[in-house]
């Protein structure tokens, strides 16, 4: 209307650019307080927090826009009602946003576990989950357990389960900060104590624990194991994988996600690799800002809508940029 000051939601989005969501904090027996210490987060209480779910669209856990013109809107609502506007062309025809992005604070060892491959997940009553880990911080000597030691057979693995010695047959790696590794469904794995990790994964929450170091859960009882499901899911030909070697900026790529690591110098800019499609940005180191809008610091995660403007590094910065294939 003449003289009207009304602006459609997409116009407001284009001006504001990034969408920041309120994190969901999860207590874990192996967690700690690194989210508070390293990222300046305010945790809900004094309990150990092992996970911060940054981007999630599940029935029981939902990301909510934290500020701006869409404050209070859920990720699920954005995905189901404004998919083309915000996420862009060619998005998958899925009822929920297909990725789940977390920060993991492991002060103690996680259980040795596996996620079911797509071919057998439905029969086990679970969901497949392929993921990747970016090592945001690692204490000296911190260890990942990934795959099997060379030559270990299924029979030897089952013997180790009965003997409580699974850790002796799993391959151990000591990665450095800034490295990454791809964890396909079926790969036996565990994160050892002393890591802060950015995890990008399929939208799934199915994990089968095969060994939990004989410890008690937060309720003082042994945590549930899933030995039969684990044995059916493990790839027993997956021997001694190493940390991944990047292909240019790309540090992980599969049918579910593509992750780039951008090493930026002061004043260097970046945006969506395809202006017609969204990306998810996490700041591993440094600080970036929009020309006329908010700044984002180490530990921040946000969604950059399709057609959004670019950001600029304020000094050296390391940024992870995740897109759909």
Count up the domains: 2
Give the ordered list of helices and strands.
Answer: HEHEHHEEHEEHEEEEEHEEEEEEEEE
* Beta-strand fraction estimate: 25-35%
Question: Which CATH-level-2 architecture of the largest domain?
Answer: Sandwich
If helices are DSSP runs of H or I spanning 4 or more residues, what is the number of helices? 7
Distance between the termini: 41 Å
CA-based shape: globular
Structural class: alpha+beta
CATH superfamily of the largest domain: Jelly Rolls
Largest beta sheet: what is the strand line-up?
Answer: 1-2-3-10-5-8
* CATH topology (fold) name of the largest domain: Jelly Rolls
**Percent helix:** 10-25%
Unreliable spans are: 1-15
Could you explain how this protein is built, in words?
By secondary structure, the protein is α+β, with helices and mostly antiparallel strands. 14% of the residues lie in helices and 32% in strands. The protein is built from 7 helices and 20 strands. The chain has a 6-stranded antiparallel β-sheet, with no helix packed on it. A 5-stranded antiparallel β-sheet has the order 12-13-20-15-18, with no helix packed on it. A 4-stranded antiparallel β-sheet has the order 14-19-16-17, with no helix packed on it.
């Amino acid at each position: 209307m003449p003289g009207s000051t009304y602006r459609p939601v997409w116009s407001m989005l284009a001006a504001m650019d990034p969408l920041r969501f309120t994190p969901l904090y999860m207590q874990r027996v192996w967690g700690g307080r690194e989210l508070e210490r390293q990222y300046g987060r305010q945790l809900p209480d004094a309990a150990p927090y092992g996970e911060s779910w940054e981007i999630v669209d599940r029935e029981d856990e939902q990301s909510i826009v934290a500020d701006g013109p869409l404050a209070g809107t859920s990720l699920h609502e954005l995905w189901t009602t404004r998919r083309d506007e915000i996420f862009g062309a060619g998005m998958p025809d899925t009822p929920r946003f297909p990725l789940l992005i977390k920060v993991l604070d492991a002060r103690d060892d996680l259980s040795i576990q596996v996620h079911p491959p797509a071919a057998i997940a439905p029969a086990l009553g679970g969901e497949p989950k392929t993921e990747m880990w970016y090592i945001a911080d690692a204490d000296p000597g911190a260890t990942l357990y990934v795959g099997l030691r060379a030559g270990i057979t299924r029979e030897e693995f089952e013997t180790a389960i009965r003997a409580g010695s699974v850790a002796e047959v799993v391959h151990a790696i000591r990665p450095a900060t800034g490295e990454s590794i791809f964890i396909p469904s079926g790969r036996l794995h565990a994160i050892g104590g002393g890591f802060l990790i950015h995890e990008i994964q399929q939208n799934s929450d199915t994990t089968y624990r095969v060994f939990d170091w004989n410890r008690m859960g937060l309720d003082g009882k042994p945590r549930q194991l899933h030995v039969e499901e684990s044995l059916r899911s493990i790839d027993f030909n997956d021997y001694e994988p190493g940390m991944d070697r990047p292909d240019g900026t790309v540090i992980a790529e599969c049918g579910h996600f593509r992750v780039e690591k951008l090493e930026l110098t002061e004043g260097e800019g970046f945006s969506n690799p395809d202006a017609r499609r969204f990306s998810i940005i996490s700041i591993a180191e440094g600080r970036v800002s929009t020309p006329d809008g908010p700044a984002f610091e180490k530990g921040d995660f946000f969604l950059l809508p399709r057609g959004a403007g670019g950001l600029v590094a304020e000094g050296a910065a390391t940024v992870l940029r995740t897109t759909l294939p």
